[in-house]
Design goal:
Blueprint lengths: L6 E5 L3 E6 L2 E6 L11 H26 L11 E2 L13 E2 L10 H190 L5 H50 L3 H12 L2 H32 L2 H13 L1
Antiparallel strand pairs: 1-2, 2-3, 4-5
């Protein structure tokens, strides 16, 4: 055989398969007792018939290929024969002739066919020789299988008895388990009913609590609304009070500024008077010194100078009194102006405090106002006298405290 050729042989319980390049022959037995017999005459006739069939097929192909304008592809032709059983099968061969140059392949096909026929004959002889051994083996195997079947039947009967006994026990266990499950289910059902009843009681209690809380919530909401309205009113009053306080602060700041200016003016007047007093004292001291130093001077000139000095002193005292009177008048005018502004402010202000103060001032007559003003003036006079005494005591005992304070006006004068 060539290297490109492949053969397959299989012998399995009376079945033979031979394959050579997609060409197969199959022989199948019909049972353990079936025998394959291939007589020599039958095989020779089959060989001759197959050879004639192959030769006629090749001849017809050559004739078809030699025709003019004739070209084509032929599909594979398969033929099979069963020389052992006498049944004919088609011989398959898949050989395509596409052109005139492929004629040599027919000879190769004939060679392969003869080779396959010889192999089939050899296999048939081998099967005839091994059939007796196979029959003995089959009988032994049959007896073994029969014995095994009996053992299996006995085992099956034992298993059936055991399974019946086990089934009875399982049924008994299952019945006991069902009884126990019924009892457990009944107990669980009773427990569930008890819990359900308790839960229903809790739900009713919670519903009552919810209703109470709703009523309490409504009451608290009303109180909150009332408190919010009061807070808004208080905020409005607070804003008005802040505005009034701001106005009073502005008025008080203006009044304080006016009082501070008047106080500075009075202090300036007091400083001037103090300076004049110091000048008078210095002049008096100088006069006394001149009198003591010059006794021999003219007595008349001294008397005239003393009279002039006394007149100057009287004039200064009168000016001081005039200034005090003018200060009192200015203070009275200031008080009256403040009272007038207070009345105007109280008349324009909506605050209840200012309204009560305005009503109080309106209820007072002119005499009462004058009396109150005179009392305030007396208080101011006492305060002024206290300030004068304080200044005199400072001048007498601690003049060094006033040197820096009163030195610039003295130098200016």
């Amino acid at each position: 055989m060539d290297s490109g050729e492949s053969q397959q042989e299989e012998v399995n319980d009376g079945k033979f398969v031979i394959g050579v390049n997609e060409t197969s022959f199959e022989c199948v037995g019909e049972g353990e007792d079936s025998l394959i017999s291939v007589p020599d005459s039958t095989s020779s006739l089959a060989n001759k018939a197959g050879f004639r069939r192959g030769y006629s097929l090749r001849k017809s192909r050559r004739e078809r290929s030699s025709l003019p304008f004739r070209s084509g592809n032929f599909g594979p032709t398969s033929r099979s024969s069963d020389p052992s059983s006498g049944r004919g099968s088609d011989l398959e061969g898949d050989e395509a002739l596409g052109s005139e140059g492929e004629i040599d392949e027919d000879y190769e096909f004939d060679r392969k066919l003869r080779m396959l026929q010889s192999q089939v004959l050899a296999l048939a002889d081998r099967q005839m020789n091994s059939e007796a051994d196979r029959l003995a083996y089959s009988k032994q195997e049959n007896s073994n299988l029969t014995l095994r079947l009996r053992l299996l039947e006995e085992n099956l009967r034992d298993l059936e008895i055991k399974s019946d006994h086990h089934l009875v026990e399982e049924q008994k266990c299952h019945r006991e388990l069902l009884v126990r499950l019924d009892k457990d289910r009944q107990l669980e059902l009773e427990n569930c009913n008890i819990r359900l009843h308790h839960a229903e009681q809790q739900v009713r209690h919670y519903e009552e609590e919810v209703n109470k809380l709703k009523v309490q919530n409504e009451r608290l909401q009303k109180e909150r609304d009332h408190l919010q309205s009061e807070i808004e009113e208080n905020r409005e009053e607070l804003r008005e009070a802040r505005v009034e306080i701001r106005q009073l602060q502005n008025h008080s700041s203006r009044r304080d500024a006016d009082l501070f200016k008047e106080r500075e003016h009075y202090q300036h007047i007091i400083q001037e008077l103090t300076a004049q007093l110091e000048q008078a004292r210095g002049l008096l001291e100088r006069v006394e010194a001149t009198v003591q130093s010059s006794v021999v001077q003219d007595q008349e000139n001294l008397v005239t100078k003393i009279q002039d000095l006394e007149g100057e002193l009287k004039r200064l005292k009168s000016e001081n009194e005039d200034l005090k009177e003018s200060c009192d008048e200015l203070q009275g005018q200031l008080v009256s102006r403040c009272v007038q502004e207070g009345r105007e402010l109280l008349s324009t202000s909506p605050s209840p405090v200012f309204e009560s103060l305005a009503q109080e001032l309106n209820q007072m007559d002119a005499q009462q106002l004058k009396q109150a003003l005179s009392e305030q003036q007396e208080v101011n006079t006492q305060l002024r006298a206290y300030i004068d005494n304080l200044l005199l005591s400072v001048v007498e005992h601690y003049p060094q405290l006033l040197e820096k304070t009163f030195q610039p006006p003295l130098y200016k004068q």
